[in-house]
Amino acid sequence: MKILDLQLEANNVDTILEFYGETLGLEILKQTTGEIRFQAGDTQLTFSAKPTTKAQYHFAFNIATNHLSQAIEWAQAAGIPLLPSPKDETITYFDTWKAQSIYFWDKNGNLLEFIAREDTQVQKSVPFSPKEMLNISEIGLITKKPIATGEAIQQQIGVDFFSKATPLAEFCALGDDDGLLILVTPTRTWYPTDVLAQRSPATIQVEVEGQLHTIQTLDWA
Asked: Where do the domains of the chain lie?
């Protein structure tokens, strides 16, 4: 599954522009007073201005398998604090997922992640910068019943549960290494923080076996 387009809300697009446009240096595809759209690898990322919104998101960017250490160096040089794992390590190792991640906040309270997945087998000879990100590969979707919601979405768009993660009552994932919907309950915190997952409006356009589908996060209670 590929996440082609991700549309989110932000209460301050000035800080969105500063972080994603200046700090990350992503290409700006569109900018108006009410909306700003970036190119994040193969995914378009859009923030709509909603001054009263309390929306908060967790999403992840796939990076090349050989770029993680360089991504750490880049973040340190850019003055972006990296969040420690519960073991007080900069890198979180997901052995079952064959992946390694680092986490950080943007300036609007969204939890971001750079993740290098071994099975993508993507390596790059150029040095890391956010413009070398592959795509947005994960977005959180908050629901009271992750497994039941996952089964319903599975029937709707024809995507399977992630083969590397056993579905649990509080957490499950749909998709593959290229694109995942992370389904969690509102009682679960976003790893590696103590911040509770929060239902927030998002429009997600995905491609599954050549077919396009649109998912609205608030359609799933």
From this structure: 2-219
